[in-house]
């Protein structure tokens, strides 16, 4: 399975439950690692990055192949009891990658294309340009958390509406997001699924997840991990999404894929930096 992940990479400065560390971060990097654990997957990330990120790129296929700046996007995350505060630094250095001939060929060969931005700077024009080169059977997935983020004068992450939803979501077959992304995300997702005919999976922490389609609403329970066993929750949602995408592309069954993703994400919660 050829998988291409568009988005941002970043350096995480994390304080989370029972751990504290500086390491690579971003949905793109977490998903890359998860996809790589399954046989027969070929994974590449499309993201700009700085020289300070090169040390994290061993065995990572990334485009462009060389750093484009001195610094990489930094996210400072503090997570306690499933509540997170964040700052984002060096955002101006994380513009989407400009299309070139090599990237066009990689898009044409992809079985799965994932967009996983953590800044709201992937507009519908850029997405449409990418999708234009994808083959018709390619599964197109969006993790839209970056579209719900804005930033104040002190670089704190603050909420924004997903203003581009109408022009962005129409390009995708599957959307995965968290109940933390929006105050009433299930109601909003029901409208998106109905109006745009897309499949949406909303994760709900210890309450499992829900599959929302134009035809209805299907809850899928999970077995919660006891709080005292959670070592690090950073990246668990991205781990869930990667496992979901892998299993859905393999089986075509979204409910079974959600169950599989619950299992993989639960295992990740018990280790530092998920599958570091």
Keywords:
276 residues; alpha/beta; UDP-N-acetylmuramoyl-L-alanine:D-glutamate ligase; four-stranded mixed β-sheet; 28% strand; globular
Describe this structure in words.
- With 276 residues, the chain is of the alpha/beta class.
- The chain has a single domain, classed as UDP-N-acetylmuramoyl-L-alanine:D-glutamate ligase (3-Layer(aba) Sandwich), CATH 3.40.1190.
- The protein has seven helices and 15 strands.
- A hairpin with a 2-residue loop joins strand 2 (10-16) and strand 3.
- Helix 6 (236-251) runs antiparallel to helix 7.
- The radius of gyration is 17 Å and the shape is globular.
Biggest sheet details: 9 strands, mixed
By CATH's scheme, which homologous superfamily applies?
A: Ribokinase
Percent of residues in helices comes to 25-40%
Strand order in the largest sheet: 5-4-1-8-9-12-13-14-15
The SSE order reads EEEHEEEEHEHEEEHEHEEEHH
**Number of DSSP strands?**
15
Mean pLDDT: 91
Q: How far apart, in Å, are the first and last alpha carbons? A: 22 Å
Can you lay out the helices and strands and say which pair or pack?
Elements: E1 2-7, E2 10-16, E3 19-25, H1 27-37, E4 42-46, E5 62-63, E6 74-80, E7 83-89, H2 101-109, E8 112-116, H3 124-132, E9 139-142, E10 149-151, E11 157-159, H4 165-168, E12 174-178, H5 185-196, E13 199-203, E14 209-213, E15 216-220, H6 236-251, H7 254-268
Parallel strand pairs: 1-4, 1-8, 2-6, 4-5, 8-9, 9-12, 12-13
Antiparallel strand pairs: 2-3, 6-7, 10-11, 13-14, 14-15
Helix pairs in contact: 1-6, 6-7
